[in-house]
Amino acid sequence: MRGKSSGSVPQPWVPGRNRKLVSVLSMKLGLHISNFTWGGGAPELRVKLGEIVARAEEAGVDRISVMDHVWQIGPIGPPEQEMLEAYTALGWLAAKTERVKLLTMVTAVVYREPGLLAKAVTTLDVLSGGRAILGIGAAWNADESAGLGLFFPPLAERFERLEEAILICKQMWSGDEGPFDGEHYHLARTLNSPQVLSRPHPPILIGGGGEKKTLRLVAKYADACNIGAYNLDDAARKLDVLRQHCVNEGRDYDEIEKTAQIRYDLGENGENVGPTIENLHRIAELGYTQVHGSLLRVGDPRQLDLLAEQVIPAVEKF
Question: What is the pTM of this model?
Answer without folding.
Answer: 0.90
